[in-house]
UniProtKB/TrEMBL annotation:
It comes from Agromyces tropicus. InterPro entries: GntR_C, TF_FadR/GntR_C, Tscrpt_reg_HTH_GntR, WH-like_DNA-bd_sf, WH_DNA-bd_sf. Residues 17-84 form the HTH gntR-type domain. Pfam families: FCD, GntR. Keywords: DNA-binding, Transcription, Transcription regulation. This is GntR family transcriptional regulator. SMART domains: HTH_GNTR (SM00345).
Length: 228
């Protein structure tokens, strides 16, 4: 009897994969928490020593971060933490608009010109979770709280995109998920959690009043927030 794929995996290969996932997660957290500033070089040798792994493991982890667009790889410059300048912000927001506005256009058409509670409920729950994630302390939300806010923010927009029931749009939107987390990590310097929650609750109301164009205004607002 031929062994299954799982049975044929070497223990060393499984350990290496786990190490890559661990290092990827640790560096991802440092990027999204702002511990690694935009443009910071990611050095294989120092990371290998810091995390107690091989340079091959670190290289594989960095490649995953590049695939998530949390880092960029350039010839002769190596790997660096992604930085958003004005053209990059605009380009990302244009892509978001193409995906999210079209997803909502399809969703409104599917549901007869409105959005049912099956769509609004998960989005509203994500907005509530954003609010609940903030610790409310005098110093504002902690890094850990902001990470939760960023995650629920992604869930909010994913819920609206999912209403399109378009597999390719949903897949393309999921592919920029890492960039969106980093985008909100930049926004935290310019807005409070309360601001973010209020904007997204208002968006849900405006979607019912004005349709997909409300999403266009929402995205343009966040673009101006960073560029201005």
């Amino acid at each position: 009897m031929r062994p299954s794929t799982t049975e044929r995996v070497r223990p060393g290969a499984a350990s290496a994969s786990t190490a890559v996932e661990r290092v990827t997660g640790l560096v991802r957290d440092e990027i999204l928490n702002g511990e690694l500033e935009p443009g910071t070089p990611l050095r294989e040798e120092s990371a290998a020593a810091r995390y107690g792994v091989s340079r091959h493991t670190v290289r594989a982890a960095f490649q995953r971060l590049v695939a998530e667009r949390l880092a960029t790889a350039e010839p002769y410059r190596g790997v660096r933490v992604t930085s958003f300048d004005a053209p990059q912000i605009i380009a990302l927001q244009q892509l978001r608009a193409a995906l999210e506005i079209e997803a909502l256009r399809i969703a409104f058409a599917r549901f007869g010109g409105t959005l049912p509670e099956s769509v609004l409920g998960p989005a509203r729950a994500a907005a509530d979770a954003m609010e609940g994630a903030a610790d409310g302390g005098p110093g504002g939300a902690t890094d850990a709280a902001w990470r939760e806010v960023e995650r629920h923010h992604a869930e909010f927009h994913a819920a609206l995109v999912a209403a399109s029931d378009s597999p390719r749009i949903i897949e393309a939107h999921a592919a920029i998920g890492g960039e969106l987390l980093l985008f909100v990590a930049h926004i935290r310097r310019h807005a409070t959690v309360a601001d973010l929650v209020e904007e997204h609750r208002r968006l849900l109301s405006e979607l019912l009043e004005r349709g997909p164009e409300a999403m266009r205004d929402h995205l343009e607002h966040s673009t101006r927030l960073l560029i201005d």
